[in-house]
Design brief:
Elements: E1 3-8, H1 12-17, H2 21-24, E2 28-34, H3 42-45, E3 49-52, H4 63-81, E4 85-90, H5 94-104, E5 107-111, H6 122-129, E6 135-138, H7 143-146, E7 151-152
Parallel strand pairs: 1-2, 1-4, 2-3, 4-5, 5-6, 6-7
């Protein structure tokens, strides 16, 4: 059975990622997101749930340290689960994991957020520009103008 890691930041990105829940049972899956009070409840519903440190780029002083620690945690989780595929809806939490996955041979599937119809996200821009994702999906047709080599996957809602 293929191993698939589903990873995203908390909030809307996680909400989108969980729309793919019906796929979980078809794979040996792991779910990784940020450690928040509400996200801890995910362990009651899903197996193999792991957490990264919650942080936002709005906290200019603490964010670089949290990002560094999340890079280390990402390496630990990658080695623990060693996924064949990594599926992500972004954002910053997924960056280090997807870079590690790319280096170690996992296939990366990036789904650009449903929230953007005409503008790029920072994570999407970086993943697209540096070809981190093996499959780059957009949910809206107008996004193909911004990401011409992307695949229109349609809505996951």
């Amino acid at each position: 059975m293929k191993s698939v890691m589903f990873i995203s930041s908390t909030g809307g990105h996680l909400s989108e990622l969980l729309q793919l829940e019906e796929l979980f049972s078809s794979y040996e899956y792991s779910l990784i997101t940020e450690n928040t009070k509400i996200n801890r409840k995910l362990k009651e519903k899903y197996k193999n749930v792991s957490f990264l440190i919650y942080g936002t780029k709005d906290h200019k002083l603490s964010y670089p340290f949290k990002l560094f620690l999340n890079c280390f945690l990402s390496l630990c989780y990658y080695l623990k689960y060693h996924p064949d595929y990594i599926v992500t809806t972004g954002a910053h939490t997924a960056g280090p994991m997807c870079c590690l996955g790319r280096i170690f041979g996992s296939k990366i599937i990036y789904i650009e957020t449903f929230a953007n119809i005409n503008t790029k996200t920072i994570t999407g821009s970086l993943f697209y520009r540096f070809k981190i994702a093996n499959l780059f999906l957009v949910q809206w047709r107008p996004m193909l103008k911004l990401y011409p080599k992307a695949t229109l996957g349609g809505w996951i809602y």
